[in-house]
Amino acid sequence: MDIQLLAICGAxxxxxxxxxxxxxxxxxxxxxxxxxxxxxxxxxxMLMLLPSLLTNLAQCTGQYWRxxxxxxxxxxxxxxxxxxxxxxxxxxxxxxxxxxxxGTVLVAYGLWGLVKPVLPNFGRHMQLAGFFAGVLSGILTAxxxxxxxxxxxxxxxxxxxxxxxxxxxxxxFMLATIALSIRLGSVExxxxxxxxxxxxxxxxxACVGLWFGSALRRHMPPTQFQSALYSILLFLGIIxxxxxx
Length: 245
Fold this sequence. Notes:
- By secondary structure, the chain is mainly α.
- The chain has helices at residues 3-23, 27-35, 41-60, 65-85, 95-115, 126-144, 151-157, 162-183, 185-189, 196-216, 222-244.
- Helix 2 (27-35) runs parallel beside helix 11, helix 4 (65-85) packs across helix 6 and helix 5 (95-115) runs antiparallel to helix 11 (222-244).
- The two termini are 28 Å apart.
- The model has no long low-confidence stretch (mean pLDDT 86).
């Protein structure tokens, strides 16, 4: 990877780290959205794995892990199984088709974040709904490297306390990242090898961005930031879809 591309990757992960520092999520989504414009999605996903995993570790800690495991195991089961064993084509397939699907997911996520629809209360069907949300999230994780739809809307529909939601997101994203790394093993064995220098730059940039974003969160209204973020993701998704047609 040449110096110019390394610098662009560093800037992308710096931005993605800031987004995660401010909002508690978004590093894989933002990095895949931007990297997907300049490199094959499978290569972008391999770059994203290590920063995503390590920046989620701290978010996994907290006092709610036991209750979250009891409540979310169906979601996580569907997510892991179908991210690893999805019967559909994965992110290592045709770049054009992967970009089209990734762009569609970004458009859907951006619209969802801007419209903020009222989500149903699943009541006694919560665990069944969680399993199916995990299945769909797993399939999209394997196909696009992005694991926000419908995982994030489902978690938000549970009306968790703020700290509990942050921990639930961290645990879910960590499991999705691990499952994606297992899925990408077949891509790597097929000849696509990760660039170690690029991975190091991505990790350092993401950590710096995460620190800066965490400090920025104290001075920025989160609702305004999230509206801007969803608008950007919607715009990037539209560009990706248009370029894939």
